[in-house]
């Protein structure tokens, strides 16, 4: 497959999950310096790995949330919590994942992840007021 | 709820997922020194968190595999890959998770996790010969 | 033991170490979503593990500071540095721990931990001016 | 060798790489509590390890950038990205290192490191406008 | 560019650095399950990132050694220490990198990395006896 | 202070804690390549940081055990569990530390650390049979 096709397919999926505006803002923010990284993200992460068929996107999102909490990456976690909601995960499902984090990655990782989730749900509630 | 009830419920689920013999051998291996840890594992990890209802056991197992690969804990990963198979996850589903590991946790984490999975599948194949 | 008793005993110890107001604010901030996590923290972390008798609270606090610096969790570290002072640890004792961090976890971990400690001591000095 | 000589040699190299003002501000910020840590940094990190002769400073800086991105220490990474530029590393060289980070440490680590680099280059561009 | 071309270019470079036999053995060991991972490694890691031109292979190898020691991945480190020697790095250069590891990632990481290096040099000495 | 004096003082303390034979074997194993690392360990780790006076050696050992379990370094943890026993820590005290590890670093870290401890106590029991 041509890397350009992977890139287009991946970018479309990424925008669907994380929002066109947020993705485009992110890509502009990194400028020329970030172009090769964005190619890896669009073509390989979204165009290949996220596009695989064995698991639904919602399940992949739950795995991502667990992985990013385990790895201690709260900024990336916030992005993929949004993606999880866009992919149809419920709060109860996310809660079950974050409690596995508490037991298997420790309380500080679970606190970080809960903060990210509660902040996101709060933003969603405010948006709902508009 | 009484902690003893949580312990019994958790131990039953743990044995169902990981095998009665393997669980009992593990508990004996740690002896008296390990008893308080085993209480946490049985009562809180299995009796509470794994027993929550929002996600099926198979989905929790996929999350566990991602988390343990992200955290760099290959011995624990091996145990939960077995649990994933007992909970009904297919190889294709596990493969999709391990490819997310490659992109989001890096190639060394993905190599470790692939080694654990291939070793386990090899053991399963040998057992099938009997 | 009943989990409710563990919860009450743990919450009392947690408030004694970290301040009633700070603990209650934290519990409210996470809302319903955070309730199961707060149960783990109160019942199991404080009600069981912190309540064990072999080590004085001050020694446990010094271990916590080393662990959280090693794990790269500066927000949680700040909370447990306060707990360490409430449990009677001196600055000289904390300094000895943070220098072990420098040698065994590396200079970036030691810098993070020193920043947290110096910020906390500065806040304490300002409070003393009142 | 006397530790005082190591300290002086190290402090001179550290100021050359990171700027006299930035280094002195950092040392003052940590006060008495931070003095033993600053002695380790000046005498052993800069006076001994950075002063070794087998590799040029620019190559050591590239290694540092990879190590700090791998370890998830973005604040320290920002300092050593500045040091890398002072030691003569080009943007293209730093980009190659950060793409190794993407593949071998995962996309979240690469995102953190790209943010730090792009922020630094932006500051440099603004300084150039003066 | 076609992903197949990237794959071929990457595989050639990977074999040059790590030895044809070792690479082919590794690819066979992971079988069908590991094929998608091997495609990422060959096409993206070696075909793209290692093939970039701003830094010589030897410098990339030194960065890799620092990164893998920082990330606590001793099995992968052993592979890339071999690659570093194939790419022309001297023992003195590797020693300088591993001493940066000692100061910035802590003594346990430096011990792990020294063990891997000394083991590798010992194997090289034995091979030289033949 | 002269670095040679620090080295001698540190080596004496290290041998007292970890056993003369084990320390000397370790230093020989790393040969010329490991000499600069051993100088850091003897002069700075043991000659300076472990020699500080604010905390007893036993308390420092408990902190080390927590830190090394948190950092996921089981080989180094085994060494410092031996040191902890030489410094007078009891099994009950070590158990309390490892249960903090379970809650704050997660069950896989606690399992690794319990394995190391139980193995060590087993060896001690066998030595006692002689």
Structure notes:
The structure is a homohexamer of 130-residue chains. The first copy, chain A, is built from 7 helices and no strands. Chain A is globular and about 45 Å long. The model of chain A has no long low-confidence stretch (mean pLDDT 95). With 130 residues, chain A is mainly alpha-helical. In chain A, 52% of the residues are buried. Helix content of chain A is 82%, strand content 0%.
Secondary structure elements and their pairing?
The structure is a homohexamer of 130-residue chains.
Chain A: H1 3-18, H2 20-30, H3 35-49, H4 57-70, H5 74-86, H6 91-105, H7 107-129
Helix pairs in contact in A: 1-2, 1-3, 4-5, 4-6, 5-7, 6-7
Which regions of chain A contain 5 or more consecutive residues with pLDDT less than 50?
Answer: none
- Oligomeric state of this protein: homohexamer
Count of discrete alpha- or pi-helical segments spanning 4 or more residues of chain A = 7
Share in β-strands of chain A: under 5%
Overall geometric form of chain A: globular
Distance between the termini of chain A: 45 Å
Calculate the mean pLDDT score of chain A and round it. 95
Largest protein interface, residues of each chain: A-B, 34 and 34 residues
Largest sheet of chain A: none
Please describe the structure with a list of short key phrases separated by commas or semicolons.
mainly alpha, homohexamer, globular, 130 residues, 7 helices, 82% helix
Explain briefly what this protein structure is.
The structure is a homohexamer of 130-residue chains. With 130 residues, chain A is an all-alpha fold.
């Amino acid at each position: 497959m041509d890397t350009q096709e992977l890139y287009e397919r991946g970018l479309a999926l990424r925008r669907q999950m994380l929002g066109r505006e947020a993705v485009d803002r992110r890509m502009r923010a990194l400028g020329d310096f970030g172009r090769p990284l964005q190619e890896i993200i669009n073509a390989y992460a979204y165009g290949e790995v996220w596009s695989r068929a064995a698991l639904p996107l919602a399940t992949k999102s739950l795995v991502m949330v667990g992985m990013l909490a385990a790895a201690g990456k709260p900024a990336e976690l916030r992005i993929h919590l949004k993606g999880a909601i866009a992919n149809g995960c419920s709060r109860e499902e996310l809660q079950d994942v974050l409690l596995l984090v508490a037991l298997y990655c420790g309380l500080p990782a679970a606190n970080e992840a809960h903060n990210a989730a509660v902040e996101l749900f709060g933003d969603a509630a405010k948006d709902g007021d508009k």
